[in-house]
Amino acid sequence: MKIKIILLSAFAASVTGCTTYHPLQLDDKVTLITSVSHLTVDTHTMPFQFLAAHKFDPTDGLDMTEVAMLAVANNPDLKLARDDAGIGHAQAFAAGLLPDPQLNIARDIPLQPGPGVVKSYSAGVGFDFGSLITHAASSSAGRFDSQKIDLNLLWQEWQVVARARLLFSRAIAQENLLRWLTDNRDLLAERYAKAKSALDDGNLARDAVNSTLSVWQDALRQVNDLQRQQLQTRHDLNALLGLSPEVELKLVTGEVVGVPDDKEVEQAITILPARRPDLLALKAGYAAEDARYRQAILAQFPPFNFAFTRSSDNFGVAMEGVAMSIALPIFNGNRGNIRIEEATRQRLHDEYQIRLDTAYADVKRLVADSRLIAAQLQASEAGLDTFDQASTNAVQAFSNGDLDWNGYAIFQSSRIARHVEVTNLHQALLENRIALFTLLGGNFDTRTIAMEKHQ
Question: Which segment of the chain is annotated as a signal peptide (predicted)?
């Protein structure tokens, strides 16, 4: 009867709180979004304040911030990262659990019954008390691991936002460039057609015609190359947003990345370890490993199991007692695990320092690069202003017959080349700013302004 009671109690305890199975079927259908007009984004789920404060309305097109919001909400890699975070939190939860107590039951039935011989039994409940020694360190490691998981996810979201803004800006810049390059191609095509006509009339040498043909073909190649780049950029942007490749996004310009001054950059570098999610994640990972190192040291204490037992022999003599087993730390003593955790902690220590040093060097490089691009842009814009001012005179001279078609085409082609140069420098400066804010752990603030000229 006592055995039955013990068995029923053990069964009831094991069933209580058990998780039941729920099937999760795979779907063989493609789930890529084919239209953005009906999409909504819950701003309360946005990880950054500037995203949460922005209105998402795709009916009138997507601006830079709306593209970033859609990327955070629908990026396929972020979906998997959030699933991985769920796994990591479950592992951290498991690390903080104590082992279950052990129940041992045995029943012996005599094969040859005799006078006074009865069925014997033994039962005992034990627990690994050694786990209590390391439980605090194990739980601490689990908590830090959870922090690391959340911070790594935040850093990945941070990078997706930067990638979305980068692809958005490239798509806009390529549209502007395509207009200039197309104008240049058409201009040079007309120049070649007139040169060929002059050749047919005997008014122009073959070498001069071949020269105009070569220039026109170079312009045509530039347009073709840019169209392929534009197609790739749009494809990459759709993939980042989890959209079907055939979706044609309407991108709305008007936002630019704010420009940090030197003082703001220096302040941001100073507090970089307290604001960049990847550095904070490395700190949490180091703290978790330090806790595991302490756990390994505490595990040097010999593990022991303690159990209460009750039994009855074949003659009906009942007995109660205790049982204890303890490991003798002669050959192992957990020394191997201690060395492993100590070496791992050292690596995480060095990884954090290297990441911090690299971040500092990258910021300094981007600041210097930004100054160089800004100076080049200023010089190019000054030259372009001269070209634009002379353009009116060139048109008038061509109309009056004071400038032939060939000279007019050469001048306009040179002017277009300057516009292309300025557009490329604007894009290089914008990409520099996006990279700088990403490295500084900035808040990606934007401000709505009039479109910059020459774009």
Answer: none
Retrieve residue 49's tokens.
């304040």
| CA angle, residues 108, 114, 120, in degrees to nearest 5 | 20
Tokens of 208: 């001069």
Which tops the pLDDT comparison, 313 or 154? Answer: 154
Distance CA 64, CA 255 (A): 7
Of all helices (H) and strands (E), which one includes residue 230?
helix 206-240
DSSP state at residue 44: G
pLDDT the model gives residue 124: 81
- Element of type H or E holding 88: helix 76-95
Stated pTM of the model: 0.83
Q: What is the pLDDT of residues 426-441, one digit of tens each?
A: 999 999 999 998 898 7
Supply the angle between the helices 405-440 and 262-270 in degrees, to the nearest 10: 30
Q: What is the mean pLDDT of residues 45-55?
A: 87
The two counts, helices (H) then strands (E), for the chain are: 11, 6
Q: Which conformational region is residue 121 in: left (phi greater than 0), alpha (psi within -120 to 50 degrees), or beta?
A: beta
In CATH, the architecture of 63-97+138-299+335-442+451-455 is: Up-down Bundle (1.20)
How confident is the prediction for the chain on average, in pLDDT?
A: 85
Give the rounded distance of the alpha carbon of 264 from its chain centre: 25
Specify the higher pLDDT residue, 445 or 157: 157
Burial class (CB in 10 A: 0-12, 13-18, 19+), 67: buried
By residue count, the chain amounts to 455
pLDDT of residue 62: 92
Helices (H), 334-449: 335-400, 405-440
Which residue type sits at 109? I
Pairing of strands 446-448, 255-257: antiparallel
Residue 443's pLDDT is 58
Structure confidence at residue 455 (pLDDT):
37
Tell me the average pLDDT across 97-107: 83
